[in-house]
């Protein structure tokens, strides 16, 4: 009887619209792994998003974190015992950020939610991730086939967090009947809203959401009394107006944007999208302000560049290894330096060390060092490594680094170059064995052929080799380094 009363109370609270205003008629940044970190979320909000989701964070990891108020950055950090920051948030987004978790257990879900509830606007449970990691752990899309467990998780959260809205995000199931049945069960938990990704678990982002799938989202919206948030329309979204079009087609209360925002977050601007260089600068300013890890910042920027990754800007970004280098590429290194100096002064005034934040002098020293080959141990051998990439555009046949290198070795009676090449996670790495040494790039390449050309380029560059043609000195193919190619763009502000 008591359980029945709680069920009635939860459903009544949901249908009464206690949280409806928060999720109705909104445009949101969808949860995206590695993309939904603090700079991206703040940028989306500043461009016009109403709500922003964190990337999916796993309950196992979160329950081991400690909440730390970071006086130096003005943030709240959730930090693992090893010092790694798993989640960073700040007052600017407190009323708009939704924490998304991956979970398969009601108790861990509640423990995680209670840890972060005071610093976020809402809690969301990922029930749509199709990745093997999530499925094997009983999380994500695995919950689509375990409705009782899904309802138990949501119910536990709703009961434990009366002052925090709880939602979930699902994918469509194989049939309309299965999908509607699942949604009806989930709604009984008392959730405040439900996000619906218009694809099946087996579909990839490159596959468009069909008219039939959009129609099913519309049917879901017509059958439940809570806001429905449609997701999956990014292939047709380029501007803010396109978001409204997708919302109208889906007949839903709100829209959640993923890939279109990943590529250009100014898609949230009602005034129109901005040039990509402007978006990159705005992103970097936030990354610098909140000391975002350079690796994550680089990933987000590379995602924005997409087809421009082979441009000089893209190549410079590819070999960059610090936030300052990235800021230099877009002509705002001076702004970065100002932020770092101000942070150091603030840290001194507060008596808080700025550990891990490099000074300008340290950054410049590292940039200078990267112009020279450095010795690293690879496969238990010394290898000369440089931050170089090979751009094949404009290189005529027979005039590439491998050809130049073999011609040089032949001319000087040296052994023919050899290449030790291997693939890791669909990226290729190569070590060139020539000129009495081993040579490799610090980065990776999209295929075997490109990786070997890059390794040959490192060998040529490290040995300061050039060939003669028609009496004129010739430089080795295309040399790209973060320091050499990161000159401010022509469109940079003065």
Terminal CA distance reads 71 Å
User: How many beta-strand runs?
Assistant: 19
Give the spatial strand order of the biggest sheet: 1-2-7-8-9-10-11-12
Principal-axes shape call: globular
Query: What Rg is obtained from the alpha carbons, in whole angstroms?
Result: 26 Å
**Averaging pLDDT over every residue, what do you get?**
86
Give a short account of the largest sheet.
8 strands, parallel, barrel
Low-confidence stretches: 467-494
Strand residue percentage: 15-25%
Helix content: 40-55%
The assigned structural class equals: alpha/beta
What's the number of helices? Answer: 20
What does this structure look like?
The structure is a single chain. Helices cover 41% and strands 19% of the residues. The protein starts with a helix and ends in a 9-residue tail after the last helix. The chain is α/β, with parallel strands linked by helices and 494 residues long. The protein has 20 helices and 19 strands. The chain has an 8-stranded parallel beta barrel with strand order 1-2-7-8-9-10-11-12, surrounded by 6 helices. A 5-stranded mixed β-sheet has the order 13-14-17-16-15. The chain has a 3-stranded antiparallel β-sheet with strand order 4-5-6, with no helix packed on it. It has helices spanning 2-15, 20-23, 38-47, 59-62, 106-116, 132-136, 147-160, 176-187, 211-223, 240-250, 259-263, 276-289, 294-305, 312-318, 323-329, 333-350, 360-370, 401-411, 448-462, 482-485, and strands spanning 27-29, 51-53, 57-58, 66-70, 75-79, 85-89, 97-102, 122-127, 166-172, 193-200, 228-231, 254-257, 374-378, 381-386, 418-424, 427-434, 437-441, 467-469, 472-474. The longest helix has 18 residues, at 333-350.
